[in-house]
């Protein structure tokens, strides 16, 4: 690999950062759109249909030709897609209310804390272990250099992710406390207890692939967990996945663990007093956290860019065409499937009660993860 | 250095799941409720007093607006109470049609309860499934009397009009598919672990307490007391119907859920019998133009979907208005049990308990 000058490194890093931010802000609106549509279809209705329905609007412009041919246009199933643009405009132009008795400084900073914590995590997430493409020669400064599928390749990647992600709860707790109102206070206390409790089984379940792979580097872990596992590791990764994903629901405050914002009990939970884009930040943070949880689960348990999950890829020779090597397509498909699962679960099951949620974490998840972890360590001991 | 304080919190009148404008003054120790005091009256219109200044015919319109989710049942109680007061006999066909619509109303009211109760506990899909069927029932009401919610369905002495042509076909189509719909709701909830965890043992109200509080309806029957006015003091055509009164011994939220689901099936049975045995004949009794009461008083209980709905009417000699009108509303009296049921439970259980009592604020505040 050729050495890069400082300016080349900077330009590539900036371009990669922009690509990741674009990815986030494309996937988040698509997830909100999917949420409306998927829940709609689960509930025997159409979901959003009002924006750009047929001959008018944004997709209407694309569809007009097909309508004139007398055919139902391709975009008609995506009716309502531009609603997210409306959402963003609405959040941006809404009056930003700060309650009189609120602690102004903290009230204003809290949503940013949540948002930043969830975005920064992407610095250590790797979408593809290698170069996605090489810049053509004629591009100034960076011509001929590779554009990697990850931002940084730090050797403590997972540690960084866990550390940064756990800062997000401060946004919720501080925002709730600074609101100086009773329903947010209850929501904030609930979320502090819940997220701190679930951090334990979440981290422990991530230790299973760490122990099995013997590395904290994101790319190394993904590759070793996917391709270098003995057959006994498969059930352990399977169990680990379910524990991790369950905790993921709790960490992202999704049904059935959406205590902090349990709408029917606490009005809107910790963000009751927030409006406008400050509320939007909490909302975005929740969806970005969903992407993070899905990305980590796909990478460490479902084989990441390799096709087969739970280490089963180890039994497919790397020379097999198409499914043998890594591909960013597999990784994105897995992320999208897990995002779909978040929505699917929300439409299907009721909400646990606060004390039941705590009981699940401490009585069931933590002991199970510990057993899983000990077995993983034993397997690691027998591995060459 | 530290001191423990109880937090006083106002749940409502603006709150997503207090089913209207109910306000609860809760005292919380952490998340545990130490005291609960319902505050009502935000929707008070003075229905009872207004009805005293209206004729008996006009009064019925106001009964729609009490428990607006079971307007037909309210109308039936009013019509029968007034008929009792004047000794009017209603033709048999009208009795059957009234029973039929009353049971449709029971289904629609229970579906609304199921929808909101499940939504309160977080199962949002049941909400739309239940509303799908409720919509069909409201269409039936619309076909019968032109209104969907505030029906004013009956007239004193019978019905204004017979069933419209095509009504029976619509009703039979609904009856044919409804059992599958109940099964569908039950697959989502009855054996759902989270649903059971959230409802079993929540909001207990034993038979003795329930009777002492005057609680009636499904809440009482879920405590093991088989008291149903349709059986105890049959009215309309219920004496000729074959149905059971479902009860459960557990007296908790889950038992109330099971009782109401069983009642849906029983209502379906009654509707089927009404449709099959619908007699021919007139639907309106001969009445004088203006009803004049002899001094007389009457209390007429009916089994509203929520419990015992009693109308107390005092007639005045030579007057077309009631001298005194009083309603024994099931929601109002069932709500009294709420503080007792939620004491010592968690905030989330308060929501589940309000849902399981199935209160409608329009009737509580009147």
Proportion of residues in β-strands of chain B? 5-15%
Q: How many individual helices of chain B? A: 15
- Write down the CATH class of chain B: Mainly Alpha
Helix content of chain A: 55-70%
CATH topology of chain B: Cytochrome-c3 Hydrogenase, chain B
Which secondary-structure class do the elements of chain A indicate? mainly alpha
Total beta strands of chain B: 6
Strand order of the largest sheet of chain B: 1-2-3
Described by strand count, sense and barrel closure, the largest sheet of chain A is:
2 strands, antiparallel
What oligomeric assembly is this protein in? heterodimer
The count of helical stretches of chain A stands at 13
Give me the strand/helix succession of chain B: EEEHHHHHHHHHHHEEEHHHH
Could you please describe the fold and organization of this structure?
The complex is a heterodimer of chains A (about 375) and B (about 375). Chain A is mainly alpha-helical and about 375 residues long. Chain A has one domain (about 95-135, about 155-380). Chain A has 13 helices and two strands. Chain A has helices spanning about 5-40, 55-70, 85-95, 105-120, 155-165, 170-180, 180-215, 220-225, 235-250, 265, 275-300, 330-350, 355-380; strands at about 125-135, 145-150. In chain A, α1 packs across α11 (about 275-300) and α9 (about 235-250) packs antiparallel against α11. The longest helix of chain A is centred in the first third of the chain and has 37 residues, at about 5-40. Chain A is globular. Chain B is an alpha+beta fold and about 375 residues long. Chain B has a single domain (about 5-365), classed as Cytochrome-c3 Hydrogenase, chain B. In chain B, strands 1-2-3 form a three-stranded antiparallel beta sheet. In chain B, strands 4-5-6 form a three-stranded antiparallel beta sheet. Chain B is globular, with a radius of gyration of 21 Å. At the A-B interface, α7, α10, α12 and α13 of A face β1, α4, α5, α7 and α14 of B.
């Amino acid at each position: 690999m050729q050495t890069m000058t400082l300016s080349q490194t900077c330009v590539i890093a900036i371009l990669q950062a922009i690509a990741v931010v674009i990815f986030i802000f494309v996937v988040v609106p698509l997830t909100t759109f999917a949420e409306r549509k998927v829940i709609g279809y689960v509930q025997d209705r159409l979901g959003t249909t009002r924006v750009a329905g047929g001959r008018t609007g944004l997709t209407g412009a694309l569809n007009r030709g097909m309508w004139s041919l007398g055919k139902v246009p391709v975009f008609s199933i995506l009716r309502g897609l531009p609603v997210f643009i409306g959402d963003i405009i609405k959040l941006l132009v809404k009056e930003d209310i700060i309650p009189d008795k609120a602690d102004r400084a903290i009230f204003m900073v809290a949503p940013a804390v949540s948002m930043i914590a969830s975005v920064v995590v992407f610095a250590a997430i790797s979408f593809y272990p290698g170069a996605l493409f090489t810049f053509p020669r004629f591009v100034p400064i960076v011509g001929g250099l590779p554009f990697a599928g990850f931002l940084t390749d730090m050797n403590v990647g997972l540690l960084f992710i866990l550390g940064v992600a756990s800062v997000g709860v401060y946004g919720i707790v501080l925002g709730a406390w600074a609101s100086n109102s009773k329903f947010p206070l209850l929501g904030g206390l609930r979320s502090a207890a819940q997220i701190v409790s679930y951090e334990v089984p979440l981290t422990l379940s991530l230790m299973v692939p760490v122990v099995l792979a013997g590395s904290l580097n994101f790319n190394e872990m993904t590759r070793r967990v996917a391709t270098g596992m003995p057959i006994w590791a498969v059930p352990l990764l399977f169990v680990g996945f379910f524990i991790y994903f369950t905790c993921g629901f709790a960490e992202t405050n999704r049904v059935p663990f959406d205590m902090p914002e349990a709408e029917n009990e606490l009005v809107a939970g910790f963000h009751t007093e927030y409006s406008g884009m400050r509320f939007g930040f909490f909302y975005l943070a929740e969806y970005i956290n969903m992407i993070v949880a899905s990305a980590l689960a796909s990478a460490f348990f479902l084989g990441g860019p390799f096709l087969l999950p739970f280490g089963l890829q180890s039994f497919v020779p790397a020379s097999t065409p198409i499914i043998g090597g890594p591909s960013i397509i597999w990784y994105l498909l897995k992320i999208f499937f897990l995002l779909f699962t978040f929505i699917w679960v929300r439409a299907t099951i009721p909400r646990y009660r606060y004390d039941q949620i705590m009981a699940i974490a401490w009585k069931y998840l933590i002991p199970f993860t510990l057993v899983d972890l000990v077995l993983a360590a034993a397997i690691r001991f027998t591995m060459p | 250095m530290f001191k423990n304080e109880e937090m006083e919190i106002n749940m409502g009148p603006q709150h997503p799941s207090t089913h209207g404008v109910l306000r609860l003054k809760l005292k919380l120790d952490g998340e545990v409720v130490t005291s609960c005091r319902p505050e009502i009256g935000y929707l008070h219109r003075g229905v009872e007093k207004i009805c005293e200044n209206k004729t008996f015919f006009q009064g019925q319109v106001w009964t729609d607006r009490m428990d607006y989710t079971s307007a037909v049942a309210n109308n039936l109680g009013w019509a029968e109470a007034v008929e009792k007061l004047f000794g009017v006999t209603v033709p048999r066909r009208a009795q059957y049609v009234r029973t039929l619509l009353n049971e449709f109303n029971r289904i629609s009211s229970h579906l609304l309860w199921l929808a909101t109760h499940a939504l309160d506990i977080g199962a949002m899909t049941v909400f739309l499934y239940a509303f799908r069927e409720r919509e069909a029932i409201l269409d039936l009401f619309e076909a019968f009397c032109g209104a969907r919610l505030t029906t004013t369905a009956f007239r004193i002495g019978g019905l204004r009009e017979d069933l419209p042509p095509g009504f029976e076909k619509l009703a039979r189509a609904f009856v044919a598919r409804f059992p599958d719909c109940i099964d569908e709701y039950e697959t989502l909830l009855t054996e759902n672990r989270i649903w059971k965890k959230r409802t079993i043992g929540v909001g207990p109200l034993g038979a003795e307490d329930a009777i002492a509080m005057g609680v009636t309806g499904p809440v009482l029957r879920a405590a093991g007391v088989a008291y149903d006015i349709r059986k105890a003091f049959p009215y309309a055509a219920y004496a000729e119907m074959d149905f059971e009164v479902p009860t459960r011994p557990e007296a908790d939220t889950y038992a109330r859920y099971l009782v109401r689901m069983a009642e849906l099936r029983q209502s379906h049975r009654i509707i089927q019998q009404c449709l099959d045995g619908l007699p021919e004949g007139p639907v309106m009794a001969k009445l004088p133009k203006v009803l004049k009461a002899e001094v007389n008083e009457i209390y007429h209980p009916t089994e509203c979907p929520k419990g015992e709905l009693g109308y107390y009417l005092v007639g005045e000699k030579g007057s077309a208005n009631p001298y005194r009108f009083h309603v024994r509303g099931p929601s109002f009296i069932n709500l009294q049990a709420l503080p007792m049921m939620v004491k010592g439970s968690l905030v989330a259980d308060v929501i589940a308990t309000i849902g399981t009592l199935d209160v409608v604020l329009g009737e509580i505040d009147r």
